[in-house]
Design a protein that fits this description.
The complex is a heterodimer.
Chain A: H1 7-10, H2 18-28, E1 33-35, H3 38-41, E2 58-61, H4 65-78, E3 82-85, E4 102-105, E5 112-116, E6 121-124, H5 130-137, E7 142-143, H6 156-162, H7 169-172, H8 175-178, E8 179-185, E9 191-195, H9 206-210, E10 219-226, E11 228-229, E12 233-241, H10 244-256, E13 263-268, H11 269-279, E14 289-297, H12 299-315, E15 320-323, H13 327-338, H14 340-345, E16 350-353, H15 363-377, E17 381-386, E18 391-398, H16 405-422, H17 441-444, H18 447-460, H19 475-481
Chain B: H1 14-27, E1 31-34, E2 49-52, E3 59-63, E4 68-72, H2 77-86, E5 89-90, H3 104-110, H4 117-120, H5 123-126, E6 127-133, E7 139-143, H6 155-159, E8 168-175, E9 177-178, E10 182-188, H7 192-203, E11 209-215, E12 218-225, H8 227-237, E13 240-241, H9 245-251, E14 266-270, E15 288-291, E16 296-300, H10 305-314, E17 318-323, H11 339-352
Parallel strand pairs in B: 1-2
Antiparallel strand pairs in B: 3-4, 4-8, 5-9, 6-7, 6-8, 10-12, 10-13, 11-12, 14-16, 14-17, 15-16
The chains are: A alpha+beta, B alpha+beta.
Bound molecules: flavin-adenine dinucleotide (2 copies).
One flavin-adenine dinucleotide binds at residues 47-48, 83-91, 94-95, 106, 126, 148-150, 154-155, 157-159, 161-162, 164-166, 214-215, 219-220, 341, 430-431, 467 of chain A.
Chain lengths: 499, 367
């Protein structure tokens, strides 16, 4: 399955001459850094979904908003698509370049503009790294809650575009819950402000719409985020289980006890072993599954909750329960989880990370399904799971140097996602659709719903110049690759525009 | 694992609602979407045939362990809240009802949240999915019954506060929260300036505050959380015990401050945290009620709309006029949008409701 842009299915892109576009941009924006030589473009050919690579026509590295404005206006006038890129850690190919497009790299906008401890907000340029926000807020006893595992590298602009999550979302929300305001530059080169430093803004909630919009509606140039007071204390319990299903049920039991943990993560045997080999987190390698349950808040409450959770876990059949003795051990427990991806990466030449979400009660069925697929395809799958909020990250191990194995891994991944949809879940919880899951979108949404998505896009970018081909498949693509029903070999609704 | 018993009133009339919308599109007629009609005052009057959602009711899915409930839009808010309470849970956004007939659809369409909002989140923050009838009369599903979902654009949250101008909401899936283990409300007699300073200081500390309103010489606080922390904070802050009914009266605007006997229009000022008192000439302390730790202020004033709006805009916020018994107070209750933002509002409306059949003019004249 090739997911690279296919003009036949994804829509024609205007053909422009690279030298002409370069000359035009150089003239319109004299100070703008533009890369055009192959060796300079090479580092930008992919994001975190490294199996897919495309050299962009040009790379632009602006440092001022005026340069971004000019770039957008000129690209629109010339009909050149613009793909925005933050730190390039995205796992769904959202920042995958287009051969006929400019890659707009926002990494030079890396300043923290303001931290206001009394209003508990921070104003940031889009290239600021996620972790840098909490570091800047720390002297005031504050932090920025969403903490994707990639937080040392990923940018806040990319977080907004993907509505990134982390291990603390069940209690503290996703990016959309923690962003108050964004400044945007549209494809027409206009500036607009969405949201407010107040708790709500006038009019439609375009801020919510921009969160998770994958660079399809505008370029985010500034972000104001909410900061939270650091919890007085955080304690983590690690429970081991001899059975994955028991661990899954324990998750529901904790929540049924009226407790919302700060973090609630699950790993299966393969992931536990990988993590243990890599970071020596003290994980029980003989266990079939472990749960990490972090309780945070005011000391007295946390102690009460720890006692309750311990009882719940015992009753759920945990074979061992360990509470981190101190801050250092807590960090070690988490280090295993936060490094699970690279840890699994050490076990296999390549791995492919999935991101489906499911209603938690379906966990046993889905894990069973994954195990069956794994056997069918002869590829190992390690499971890392944001258990509290039903977001699974099955990691499929494969070797791209073996002919056909990448395709096998992708097919297996596609099956897992379709299973997630079948049990009432979603093909992506936090990594986004990008290019990677473009075909699975056809399984999750019907043609009418996809048409509505295209209508939203048309309201902001009627010429489809912002990140074309990402996030929402054309109906033509669904007819060819997706799960869309075809009767008597006829495309459904030939009257619908094929974009 | 449905945990609710179906009610005799449960009914799915989405087909009929879809037909009605299809007819409106075909005829070019206009629709005024109404739930309980308890929040008609919040927005511009709509000229159109009333399309009621009230027969479309019932909880379609509720599993307390998943912390998710799905409910048809015509379901009375009170019915939903009673079901959640029966399972030790609640709506985190603490929405106002403004009448016994308030529906879930009205809560979502207006997006109004109660006293807990700054700490727990707004209506929009708890919406996980929606079913919406589009302008062609098709019911479409966005988001869903999972906590995290970034497939496609977030149309569910876009519907919140859109006041029915983009489509007819038929069902919503919401994240729900466990009720706090302990709750204590208190009243501290302190001047406004001290209250503001205290709230800024406490805001930086992990205290179990879930409501804070200053009015008539006193700061009213609610503490919620584990019994231990509530008890400890109660000890630390002191003050007089306050009846929890205060928060319901505040949320439902039945405190004397909101009395309909006052002929001056009621304004809602939405402001950033830690905004000092706005210098509005002629406004007395008694004309203001500071809710949401000062980020939502209610004002009784005859001042010109522009004066109030400009003062709020300068502080980084905005102002909405809710009128008085004398009438709406302002032809346009909502503050005008910046021109570029207004343009994209019009574009979006034109795309999602090309014939302008859904609640025309409710939010802004041109939408
Ligand atoms: C090891 C690893 C662990 C990860 N763990 C998590 C996790 O726990 N949770 C999670 O949610 N994600 C995770 N991710 C995925 C990734 O880090 C996030 O999606 C992140 O938000 C991407 O940010 P970025 O700056 O790298 O964006 P990029 O990859 O550069 O871009 C991502 C998308 O955002 C758009 N974009 C970027 N900047 C802007 C802008 N300024 N304006 C408009 N659009 C823009 C791009 O066009 C693209 O569509 C992980 C990735 C890796 C490699
Ligand atoms: C412009 C347009 C917008 C639409 N918007 C929506 C929407 O928002 N939500 C939604 O649920 N559905 C919408 N539909 C219908 C949708 O495409 C599917 O027909 C419907 O969702 C059933 O899906 P299915 O795959 O189960 O049906 P299928 O199994 O594909 O079709 C069921 C039967 O109905 C016939 N059929 C399907 N659609 C049509 C049609 N439009 N005209 C005549 N015969 C037809 C098929 O030939 C088949 O016999 C729209 C259709 C059109 C033309």
């Amino acid at each position: 399955m090739n997911i690279l842009y296919d003009e036949r299915l994804d829509g024609e892109l205007p053909a422009t001459d690279k030298a002409d576009v370069l000359a035009d941009l150089q003239q319109a924006a004299p100070g703008l850094t533009l890369l055009y030589r192959e060796e300079d473009l090479r580092p930008f050919e992919c994001d975190g979904l490294a199996a897919y690579r495309v050299l962009p026509m040009l790379v632009a590295l602006p440092e001022t908003l005026e340069q971004v404005e000019t770039l957008m206006k000129r690209c629109r006038a010339l009909g050149v698509p613009v793909v925005t890129r933050g730190a390039g850690t995205g796992l769904s190919g959202g920042a995958l370049p287009l051969e006929k497009g400019v890659l707009l790299v926002m990494s030079r906008f890396d300043r923290i503009l303001d931290v206001d401890p009394d209003a508990r907000i921070a104003r940031l340029q889009p290239g600021v790294r996620n972790l840098a926000i909490s570091e800047a807020a720390a002297p005031y006893g504050l932090y920025y809650a969403p903490d994707p595992s990639s937080q040392i590298a990923c940018s806040i602009g990319g977080n907004v575009a993907e509505n990134a999550g982390g291990v603390h979302c069940l209690k503290y929300g996703l990016t959309v819950h923690n962003v108050m305001k964004v400044e945007v530059i549209t494809i027409e080169g206009e500036r607009m402000t969405l949201g407010s430093e107040a708790l709500d803004a006038q009019g439609l909630d375009l801020l919510a719409l921009f969160n998770g919009s994958e660079g399809m509606l505008g370029v985010v140039t500034e972000i104001t985020v909410k900061l939270l007071p650091k919890p007085e204390t955080a304690k983590v319990l690690m429970a081991s289980f001899d059975d994955v299903e028991k661990a899954g049920r324990a998750v529901g039991d904790i929540i049924a006890a009226g407790i919302i943990p700060g973090g609630l993560e699950m790993m299966d045997k393969l992931a536990i072993r990988a993590a243990e080999d890599f970071v020596k987190a003290g994980y029980p390698v003989e266990a079939e599954a472990i749960l990490l349950c972090e309780l945070d808040g005011v000391e007295a409450d946390v102690d009460d909750d720890c006692a309750t959770v311990r009882k719940v876990l015992e009753k759920a059949g945990a074979t061992g329960i360990q509470q981190a003795r101190d801050e250092a051990e807590r960090a070690t427990f988490w280090a295993g989880r936060k490094n699970a991806f690279p840890a699994v990466g050490r076990m296999s030449p390549d791995y492919y990370c999935m991101d489906g979400t499911i209603p938690r009660r379906e966990l046993p069925r889905v894990l069973k399904g994954i195990a069956d697929f794994s056997e069918e395809y002869g590829l190992r799958v390690a499971n890392v799971f944001h258990a509290g909020d039903g977001n699974m990250h099955p990691l499929i191990l494969f070797d791209a140097n073996r002919p056909g194995e990448l395709e096998q891994a992708e097919e297996l991944g596609g099956k897992i996602l379709e299973l997630c949809v079948e049990v009432g879940g979603s093909i992506t919880g936090e990594h986004g659709v990008g290019r990677e899951k473009i075909n699975q979108m056809c399984a999750q949404f019907n043609p009418g719903e996809l048409t509505t998505f295209h209508a939203v896009k048309a309201a902001f970018d009627p010429d489809r110049l912002l990140n074309p081909g990402k996030n929402i498949p054309t109906l033509a693509r669904c007819a060819e690759f997706g799960a869309m029903h075809v009767h008597n070999n006829e495309l459904p609704h030939p009257e619908l525009p094929r974009f | 694992m449905a945990q609710t018993r179906p009610q005799p009133t449960d009914q799915d009339i989405s087909e009929a609602l879809g037909d009605r919308v299809r007819r409106a599109t075909a005829e070019g007629s206009l629709l005024r979407i109404a739930g309980g009609d308890t929040k008609a005052f919040y927005g511009r009057p709509v000229d159109g045939e009333t399309l009621s959602t009230r027969e479309h009711r019932g909880i379609t899915y509720y599993d307390p362990v998943e912390l998710i409930v799905s409910v048809r839009s015509g379901t009375p808010l009170a019915e939903l809240e009673a079901t959640l309470a029966g399972n030790g849970q609640m709506l985190g956004c603490e929405p106002p009802h403004f009448g016994a007939n308030a529906t879930v659809g009205g809560m979502v369409a207006t997006g109004l949240s109660g006293p807990r909002r700054p700490w727990a989140g707004s209506v929009r923050d708890f919406v996980l999915g929606t079913r919406v009838i589009n302008h062609e009369g098709y019911q479409q599903r966005f988001g869903g019954e999972v906590m995290k979902n970034v497939a496609g654009y977030d149309l569910s949250r876009l519907m919140v506060g859109a006041q029915g101008t983009l489509g007819l909401i038929t069902e919503v899936s919401l994240k729900v929260l466990p009720r706090p283990g302990a709750s204590h409300s208190l009243r501290l007699e302190i001047p406004l300036a001290d209250a503001q300073a205290k709230l800024a200081e406490w805001g930086r500390q992990p205290l179990p505050i879930t409501a804070a309103a200053w009015h008539a010489g006193a700061l009213h606080l609610r503490l919620e959380g584990g019994p231990s922390s509530v008890a400890a904070t109660r000890e630390r802050l002191g003050g007089d015990e306050l009846d929890a009914g205060f928060w319901t009266a505040l949320r439902e605007q039945t405190l004397d401050f909101f009395s309909r006997d006052d002929a001056r229009p009621l304004w809602r000022l939405s402001l950033p945290h830690n905004t000092p008192s706005l210098a509005l000439s002629g406004v007395e302390e008694a004309d203001l009620l500071h809710d949401w730790a000062g980020t939502q202020r209610w004002l009784r004033s005859d001042l010109a709309a522009d004066t109030i709006r400009e003062a709020c805009a300068r502080a980084g916020g905005h102002a909405t006029c809710l009128g008085s018994r004398e009438g709406p107070g302002q032809p346009d209750p909502f503050m005008p949008l910046e021109p570029v933002v207004a343009k994209y509002h019009r574009n979006l409306k034109a795309q999602l409701d090309p014939k302008g059949i859904f609640n025309p003019g409710r939010l802004y004249a041109e939408l």
